[in-house]
Design a protein that fits this description.
The chain has eight helices and eight strands, in the order H-E-H-E-H-E-E-H-H-E-H-H-E-E-E-H. It is an alpha/beta fold. It has one domain: GpdQ, beta-strand dimerisation domain (Transcription Regulator spoIIAA, 2-Layer Sandwich), CATH 3.30.750. The chain has a six-stranded mixed beta sheet with strand order 3-4-5-6-8-7, covered by helices on one side. Strands 1-2 form a two-stranded parallel sheet. Strand 3 and strand 4 form a beta hairpin. About 35% of the residues are buried.
């Protein structure tokens, strides 16, 4: 989306991560509009990083092309952390990943699923994603996966870093823009919010007692860390810069990527 030279970005990121001696690099989705290109990029990046382990999950953009519902739900790449976990050596920390999804709970149309689905099929890019179930059924699947992972983590007395793409709490959304000042704009605003995430995921994470940090993406703009119920939500989205939109606070992609990294010392 940001039309950055792929090889240049790859070399910059690999060199920076090597120089900083980062142990784990986690990516929360939306690299390309293609699953194949996303997988190839991270495989190449991992090959350049002898001291850093790379893991990623998919965003909705990564699911737009070259992917089936089965491929997304049952990843073959060992770097894809969807519905998987890794334990950090010599520590009590576990990293759990899940792509996540949405169930319209961020929207005033939360109880009008047929109306939201009809709007999505006309206006929203996710309508082209291969999906065998409804959005609500897909989100229920996510919640079941995450609940099973968190239950296991609690049984094994782990502290959890959770990585997902879609926002887990409506409180993480930016304030309503002032230009949303008419019934038509309010309608579009609420429909877009419906596709941003799920409060039910945040409730599950906060009630687990084991999750300490949550990394999410999907939302554009600046989103400072938010603390709720003993855990911290970190937004890790780089944002978009093109002819119409500029969400970057830095001069170029490389400075923006570096500035938006969240580094935890565990």
């Amino acid at each position: 989306m940001n039309k950055v030279d792929v090889d240049e970005a790859l070399h910059f990121q690999a060199n920076w991560l090597n120089q900083q001696r980062i142990d784990y690099y986690l990516y929360g989705g939306d690299l390309f509009n293609s699953l194949d290109r996303t997988q190839r990029y991270f495989a190449r990046l991992q090959a350049w990083l002898p001291h850093t382990k790379v893991f990623y999950i998919l965003g909705n953009h990564d699911m737009l092309n070259d992917s089936s519902f089965s491929q997304v739900e049952h990843p073959t790449s060992p770097l894809n952390l969807h519905d998987r976990f890794i334990d950090l050596p010599d520590s009590n920390w576990r990293i759990i990943g899940n792509n996540g999804w949405y169930d319209y709970t961020f929207s005033s149309y939360r109880d009008q699923s047929q109306k939201v689905r009809a709007w999505k099929n006309v206006f929203w890019l996710d309508s082209s994603i291969d999906q065998l179930v409804s959005d609500l059924e897909r989100m229920a699947r996510v919640l079941a996966q995450v609940k099973a992972q968190l239950t296991r983590a609690a049984q094994e007395r782990k502290e959890v870093i959770f990585m997902t793409h879609f926002a887990p709490r409506h409180e993480l959304l930016a304030p309503k823009p002032p230009q949303v000042n008419s019934p038509r704009r309010e309608h579009f605003y609420q429909m877009i919010n419906a596709m941003m995430g799920s409060d039910r995921l945040g409730e599950l994470l906060e009630e687990s007692g084991v999750v300490k940090n949550v990394f999410y993406g999907h939302l554009h703009g600046i989103h400072p860390p938010v603390q709720r119920q003993g855990l911290t939500y970190f937004n890790q989205a780089v944002g978009v810069k093109n002819r119409r939109i500029n969400e970057w606070q830095a001069a170029d992609f490389f400075a923006q990527w570096t500035a938006t990294l969240r580094i935890l010392d565990l």
